[in-house]
Amino acid sequence: MEKMTLAEIVKAVDGSFGYPSDAFVESISTDTREKIENSVFIALKGANFDGHDFAKKAMEQGAKAVITERAVENAKCIIVDSTRKALLDLATYYRSKFNIPLVGITGSVGKTTTKEMISLVVSEKFETLKTEGNYNNEIGLPKTLFGLESKHTAAVIEMGMSHLGEISRLSMCSQPNIAVITNIGFSHIENLGTQENILKAKMEILDGADYDAPLILCYDDKMLRNAQIHDGRKVVYYSVKKKDCDVYATEIKSDENSISFVINYPDGRIDAVINCMGEHNVKNALAAFCVGLQLDIEPERIVSGIAKYRPDGLRQNVKQSNGKTFIVDCYNASPDSMKAAINVLSNTKEKGKKICVLADMLELGKMSKTLHRTVGEYVADSSADMLLCFGSDSAYYIEGAVKKGFGADKCAHFETREELAEYLKAMLQEGDTVLFKGSRGMKLEEVINNLG
User: First vs last Cα of the chain: how many Å apart?
Assistant: First the structure.
């Protein structure tokens, strides 16, 4: 973070401060386990903690002041109505100090992978700040923005949500110059009720965007294809199926751990490669290509950036173990991402069995049973040989698969991860390929760890 004065901070958060305010601040903190010296500490309140209880400790560790909702003894308090709002307000002010292109990304599925690909593309031309990990909410996004420094000439920011209004606040804070929506699925439908409301929530990414900021959408997603966009907004569509889009892929060919394809764009066509599996990742690469074009990056440099992408440990990471292939995709799960992962399994060329190990998809509310059954039907239509399930709702995968004609003798449900791991140890053979897919909270990676 670039230094700010206390006076700037007091004004940005519309706070009350009764002390000299000419001191410089080097960082913003919300956790006393972080570096506190020469910072301003913001006392956030959560379900199980209250940052006000740590305000005095923050001062003792060298904070210049603390932002609070009430006076705290032995602490220099900048008092505000809401510390959560103050965090967003301060990040909004800090973002406005940087006249740089900022790419905002949201979507039900694939936004983190797309963010990674876009940041690699943008980094081909710009010194780029990007969202790290899952810092995509109303606490993480401001913290990311505070990482902006004078050296940065661009930023790539991911925006997540679980309720209406959240992406609007994140967009107003980050002020994107380019907006990307990957797709509209069923994630958080428990809170939002319908896909129409999910679309409405994702479209909030435009609330803080420039009037002329391009909106990049996947034309293969029906909800995005039919979305009503205000007149005057530039919309760029990409597709792996339709050739009447601004950018589309053809000649898609899969290898063991990569996919080659041709990207067609208004001024020509160019060969591209991604070092991961799945047609959905081709879509993510096309979104990154669209961003690169909007930033006037040469197509050759764009595909060079895309080729540098590597999946991380829990996101569709393909690894070999004792002659067996494991497709590890345990970071999150929704019907769309489940189907994409099953496609990856189906397209593998190993000669052994193809085994789906699926755990629950969380946060689907009243639609959970139906959507789990739908995924099970998709398994039945795939080239999978076995379906192994863990979690209370995962039994509906089996119900859907068997209803569609998948043999019941090819399915098994497990009460614990340990039982599932022991079963796999006993039956896996050289040449087998296993897909591990489930919501993060199901911790399927523990099954993999138990396989040795």
Answer: 43
